[in-house]
Amino acid sequence: MSRLAVVCGGSRGIGQAVSVLLAQRGCRVAVVSRNVEAAQDTVACLRGADHVALSCDVSKEEEVRRTFESICQTSGNITYLVNAAGINRDSLLVRTRAEDMLSLLHTNLLGSMLTCRAALRSMLQAQAQAQAQGAAIVNIGSVVALKGNPGQCVYSASKAGLEGFTRSLAKEVASRNIRVNLLAPGFIHTDMTAGMKEEDVARSIPLRRFGKVEEVAQAVLFLLESPYITGQVLVVDGGLQLSM
Ligand code: NDP
Predict the structure, then answer these.
(1) Which ligand 1 atom is nearest residue 59's CA?
(2) Which of 3.30.420.40, 3.40.1190.20, 3.40.50.720, 3.40.720.10 would CATH assign to domain 4-243?
(3) Which atom of ligand 1 is least distant from the CA of 216?
(4) Where are the domains of the chain?
(5) Is 224 exposed, middle or buried (0-12, 13-18, 19+ CB in 10 A)?
(6) How many Cβ atoms from other residues are within 10 Å of residue 57's Cβ?
(7) How far is the centre of ligand 1, averaged over its atoms, from the C-alpha of 33 (Å)?
(8) How many CB atoms lie within 10 A of CB 49?
(9) Residue 202: which of 236, 148, 239 has the closest Cα?
(10) Contact (Cβ atoms closer than 8 angstroms) between residue 32 and residue 67
(11) What percent of the chain has pLDDT over 90?
(12) What is the DSSP secondary structure assignment for residue 80, as one 8-state letter?
């Protein structure tokens, strides 16, 4: 049977481009987001059959448990997990409400922890049944976790937390031949950056432009399919961190 990939945050932006590329590579894709209509729209664009769309808020433990159980019952064991679900709430720390801090941490950090745990149960079960196909996880972090950015204290903390989580989890599951890596994008054209003026920011990017979602998806695929890479952070930012 073809590989099953779960893409959290697959309805838009980076996750949608990852879903498209994985379907082109012959994977069956489970597209997960809170808005199920948007996830269905993504599924409608995917090449091949047997893709599914599911509504799930990744920050809610019970919803994640039910969603992953439903995916495995319908589609079998999971080979790939991509955690692209994320939010930003940019503001200076002194103006940031505790509830916004919690939303950021719950979606960007706790959400990935919950989905990794749920997917690992399936990946380990596949191994027990000798059906494993090189299982791998890619978490989407951010270049701001590496260098910091004013107005993004909590966002960058959530992404820095994800880095530590990724490295530790990579060590926990390496003996089972499950790989876990993190991809740290710079500025990418999506809804998340729609309010920014590219020309104002681009001069600080060595490649002088924002990235395209397809360029990030290509790098996600590289990490998923590279059998000897685990616990790594791959920066896809047009050189931004060199000049930060
Ligand atoms: P978008 O805003 O375009 O898409 C975000 C996706 O996440 C949507 O599918 C959204 O669907 C989903 N999502 C958000 N919250 C939840 C939730 N609680 N549960 C389930 N799904 C959720 O963002 P991008 O594609 O730009 O970002 C993808 C990832 O890349 C994020 O983690 C972001 O932090 C990171 N990133 C993006 C950068 C950029 O420049 N664009 C730069 C660095 C990192 P729905 O709203 O229906 O739930």
Answers:
(1) 18
(2) 3.40.50.720
(3) 30
(4) 4-243
(5) buried
(6) 16
(7) 9
(8) 8
(9) 239
(10) yes
(11) 96
(12) E
Q: For position 130, what pLDDT does the model report?
A: 74
In this structure, the residue with its CA closest to atom 34 of ligand 1 is 86
pTM of the model: 0.98
Tell me how far apart the terminal alpha carbons of the chain are, to the nearest angstrom. 45
Residue 138: Cβ-neighbour burial (10 angstroms; 0-12, 13-18, 19+): buried
Sign of CA dihedral 217, 161, 203, 239: negative
Is 228 an annotated catalytic residue? no
pLDDT of 56-85, one tens digit each? 999 999 999 999 999 999 999 999 999 999
Residues 6+ apart with CB under 8 A from 72: 78, 122
Pocket of ligand 1 (CB under 6 A): 8-9, 11-15, 33-35, 38, 56-59, 84-87, 107, 111, 140, 142, 185, 187-188, 190-193
Among candidate residues 68, 80, 155, 165, the one labeled active-site is 155
Atom of ligand 1 nearest to the CA of 144: 43
The whole-angstrom separation of Cα 124 and Cα 173 is: 9
C-alpha span between 227 and 204 (Å, rounded): 34
Pair of tokens at residue 8: 């959290």
* Sign, CA torsion 152/155/159/160: positive
Residue 102 has pLDDT above 80, yes or no: yes
